[in-house]
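Chapter review: from sequence to fold.
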Amino acid sequence: MINKICICGVGLIGGSFALALKKAGFDGEIIGFGRTTENLQKAVDLSVIDRFSCDIKTAVSDADLIMLATPMLIMPIILKQIKPFLSHKPIITDVGSVKEYLIQQVTDILGDYNNFVGAHPIAGKEKSGVEAVSCELFIDKKLIITPLPNTNQNAIDELTKLWLKTGAKLQTLSPAQHDKIFSHISHLPHMLAYSLINTLHDIELDDNIFAYAAGGFSDFSRIGASDPQMWADICLTNKNNIADSLQEYISHCQRLKQLILTEDHYKIMELFSQAQQLRQNL
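The C-alpha cell string follows.
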C-alpha cells in the first residue's frame, strides 16, 4: 500500500503525476524534493504537492515510493543521496527516457535493489516546469514499464496501480528494447528539430529567415523548444543508440541528396509516396 510518495524533481512530469493522483482520489501524502524552495513552494501553492523539503533525509523518510523525475544525469546524484535512508526498502521508480544507463547506476550505487521499477510515460509538452503541469497529461498515453527478471512483483503491482489512476495505458519492454525503440521514435526527432533550427540560423541571408516561417516549420520544429538540459542528458546516456539512429537518417539524407542532384524524379516520388502512405497509416 502506497501512502507516502516523494517526488524528486517537481516539474512537468513529476508534478503532473502528483496532480493526476490527487484528482483520482489518492489520499496519501505527496512530498516534493528539489534544490530550490521557490519552485517547490509554487508546487504547494498550486496544490500539486502537499509539502516539500530540501533536506533529502526528511523528504524520503518513511516514503513508500520515491520517484526520480529529474534530468537523467541528476538521477545518480539523488540515488547516492538517498542511499543511507532506504532501510525500509521503498519502491524507487523514475520517469526518464533512458533505461539501461539508469539501471546500471542503480546497480552500481544501491547493489541488488529489487524494489527499483523503471518507468517512462510517453507524454509531455515542449514547455517544462511546475507551471505546465496537467492532471490530464497521461490520459490514454502509453506508460512503459521496464522491470528486470529479479524485480519485486509487488513493487511492479503497486506502481502499476498508481499509473493506472492517472489514465495511462501500461506496456512492458526490456530496458534494451526501450532504449533502441525510443532512440528512433523520440530521441532522433528531437535531434532533428534542434539541428534544423540551428541550421537555418546559420544560413547567411540579408533577411531574417525565420520571418518567413509558416505552419510546416512550426509543426516540425515545435519540440525544438524542449528543455535543453533534459535532452543533452538523454544524448549522453543513450549515446550509442542515438548515434546509430542519426547515422541511419544521414544515410537517407545522402541518398535523397543524390537523387535530387541526378534529377531522378521517379525515385524521389517513390520515396515521398512511401513516406506519405506510412504517415497516413499512423
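Two observations follow directly from the output. Residues 177-280 form a domain with the 6-phosphogluconate dehydrogenase C-terminal fold fold (CATH 1.10.3660.10). Residues 182 and 225 are 19 Å apart (CA to CA).
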